[in-house]
Specification:
The protein is 34% helix and 6% strand. The chain has 6 helices and 5 strands; from the N terminus they run ββαβββααααα. The protein has a 3-stranded antiparallel sheet. Strands 3-4 form a two-stranded antiparallel ribbon.
Length: 206
C-alpha cells in the first residue's frame, strides 16, 4: 500500500479510490479530501490526531512521501519570505555566506517546533526584527585581514646572553659507575652532583 495515498482517518487508499487526494495539516497530519470537507464543513475544528484548532484553508496538498522532507521544504518556503536578500545586497561575500548560514541554522531550529503555527509565529518575530541576522552575523569570528606587505620577522639569537665557559674540556668527563644512577633527594643524582663538583674547580660560574 502506498502510504502517500492513504487516509488515516477513513482508511481509504488509492486502490479503493484511484482519485484520492491527500492533504497535510500544519501539524503534519494527513487526511483525504473527503475527510477534509467533512470535518471542516462548519469552519474551525480540531485536528483528529492532536487537537490543534485548524481551518480547511490551513491544509495543503502533500508533495513528498517522506513527511520529514515535506516539512523541511515547507519551512524553507515560509522562511524565504523573511530571508529574501541576494548576494548583491551585501558589501562582501563573507557577509552573504554568514546570511545563508544563519538561514540554514534557522531551518534547523524551526524543525524542532511542533507545527507550522509555531513556525509562523517565529517568522513573524523575524519579520518585525529584520536586523536580527546582522546581530547574529556579528557574533561570528571574522578572519583578520592582512595587508599586502608582510611583517618582517625579527631574528633571535638563541645564544644571546649566554656566558661562554672559561674552561673547555677536550674530552668528555667520565665518572665512576657509583656516581651515575643512584637517586638523591630533590631530583638530583650523584652523577649531576659529581659533575658540578669537578667543573666548579675549573669554572667560577658553577
Amino acid at each position: 500500500m502506498d502510504d502517500q495515498l492513504f487516509c488515516p482517518q477513513c482508511k481509504s487508499d488509492s486502490y479503493l479510490n484511484p482519485n484520492i487526494k491527500i492533504f497535510v495539516s500544519p501539524c503534519y497530519h494527513k487526511m483525504c479530501d473527503n475527510c477534509l470537507s467533512r470535518i471542516f464543513s462548519s469552519g474551525e475544528s480540531g485536528c483528529p490526531e492532536c487537537g490543534t484548532i485548524l481551518r480547511k484553508t490551513n491544509f495543503t496538498s502533500q508533495t513528498f512521501e517522506d513527511m520529514f522532507v515535506e516539512r523541511e521544504c515547507r519551512i524553507r518556503r515560509i522562511l524565504t519570505k523573511v530571508f529574501n536578500k541576494k548576494e548583491e545586497d551585501f558589501s562582501d561575500e563573507e557577509l552573504f555566506e554568514d546570511y545563508n548560514e544563519l538561514f540554514e541554522d534557522t531551518v534547523v531550529d524551526m524543525m524542532e517546533l511542533k507545527n507550522d503555527l509555531e513556525v509562523l509565529r517565529k517568522v513573524e518575530i523575524l519579520r518585525q526584527n529584520p536586523h536580527i541576522y546582522i546581530l547574529e552575523s556579528s557574533k561570528k569570528k571574522k578572519k583578520p585581514k592582512t595587508s599586502g606587505e608582510a611583517t618582517p620577522v625579527q631574528e633571535i639569537d638563541p645564544l644571546e646572553g649566554v656566558i661562554a665557559p672559561s674552561v673547555i674540556l677536550k674530552k668528555p668527563l667520565v665518572l665512576p659507575k657509583a656516581f651515575q644512577f643512584e637517586d638523591k633527594k630533590g631530583g638530583y643524582t650523584k652523577r649531576i652532583t659529581a659533575y658540578r663538583a669537578v667543573y666548579s674547580l675549573m669554572d667560577d660560574n658553577i
